[in-house]
Amino acid sequence: MVERQVDIDGVLYRIDLNNPVERYINPILTANHINKVWTSPALQVKTVHNAGVTKFNQQTVMLFRSHLRNGISVIGLAKSNDGLTHWMIDPQPAMGPASEEDAFAEGTNREALIENESGGVEDPRITKIDDTYLITYSAYHASIKNRVRVSLASTKDFVEFKRHGPVLDTDMRNVAIFPEKVNDKYVGLFRPNDTTEGDVGGVFAEIKIGYSDTWYGPWQIDDKPLMRTGGGPSAFQDKIGPGAPPLKTKHGWIDIFHGVRSTMDGNPYTLGVALHDLDDPSRVQVSNIPILFPSKADCRVNDTDYVHVPNVVFTCAAVRNDDGTIYLYYGGNDTVMNVGITHEDVLAELCTKYGQDPLQGTPLYDII
């Protein structure tokens, strides 16, 4: 069985198939940290979670989602020299609901975009393409229930963010873009929202792949799902969606996604992993075994602190280091930011040895 040991400041993290993700000293960022910097009553927050993370100018940059006390979400920015500790928080949010003062790409319908973001902006994912950082994020309408569009922003300096508008003109919460072209096409993973009542089943249980000639679209989405759960006994049986933008490794593109299994006491979120072929990302192997289940360790807060959604681990970011170790950034209970330590060799072996049918969810290995 493949095993890797990761040494971080003298602490050894053992990663193997039975323990594919080791929790770091969590949480790494909380609402209390943000509120010490954002001191205005209008900017006090109750959560910090579901962050996009990337490397920039020898630092790790995090774009995090926070709920203001009035319920609107904004995106803040923090930096760290090691990607784990001593996060330096910018004094103002990096992105909020769009306004006329923001930068817009040429041809963008400003009025429509401002209206559609009036309910808040959430869940940024960052993909570096050449010298440009692409940010996909969920934009909520303030008055139309469940109206959400994944929109696109770009930046070169993490100071100015240029808005390009919705990635697709359909309700959607999850889009992850690959960090380079494959066969001269940009590639993305998509999970549109369903049109039926409820938050599970239907297309909520499907991930599709799409292609474009440019990173700002238009995107052509394959009709056939790339991954689909079959509704059987699985941590992913009722809902899946793209998580972190895929990571290029010697094994293939590592894709860390989220999955949901409905229970009598809610919808716990877990994290899973898939492995896409480097030359044809539509060829995919999916681990039948999740890599992270939610636990009490994922939401350590003070007794008087607010907890948003129980039993959730959710990722929008993973950063690969040169030695194959991966820092997996994830929100705990939609309340705090955490990081897990893992390794590409272990994640790839889960996919190749303990896989499932990508379209049925059934195991491809003998259980006993």
Structure, described:
The protein is mainly beta. It has a single domain (3-356), classed as Glycosyl hydrolase domain, family 43 (Tachylectin-2, Chain A). Helix content is 6%, strand content 41%. The protein has helices spanning 31-35, 110-116, 344-353, and strands at 3-8, 11-16, 22-23, 49-56, 59-67, 73-80, 88-89, 103-104, 120-129, 132-140, 148-155, 162-166, 172-177, 186-192, 206-212, 220-221, 227-228, 239-242, 247-248, 253-260, 269-276, 284-287, 313-320, 325-332, 336-343, 355-356. The strands form six sheets. Strands 18, 19, 20, 21, 22 and 26 form a six-stranded antiparallel β-sheet that branches. A five-stranded mixed β-sheet has the order 8-12-11-10-9, covered by helices on one side. Strands 13, 14, 15, 16 and 17 form a five-stranded antiparallel β-sheet that branches.
In short, what is this structure?
The protein is mainly beta and 368 residues long.
CATH T-level topology: Tachylectin-2, Chain A
Write down the overall geometry: globular
What would CATH call the architecture?
Answer: 5 Propeller
Whole-number count of domains: 1
Uncertain segments are none
The count of DSSP E runs of length 2 or more, i.e. the number of strands, is 26
Radius of gyration: 19 Å
- Estimate the mean pLDDT confidence: 95
What is the chain-wise order of helices and strands?
EEEHEEEEEHEEEEEEEEEEEEEEEEEHE
Provide the helix percentage: under 10%
Class from helix and strand fractions: mainly beta
The CATH class name reads Mainly Beta
The CATH homologous superfamily corresponds to Glycosyl hydrolase domain, family 43
Strand content: 35-45%
Task: Enumerate how many helices there are, as a single number.
Answer: 3
Q: Could you give a short account of the major beta sheet?
A: 6 strands, antiparallel
Please give the alpha-carbon distance between the first and last residues.
17 Å
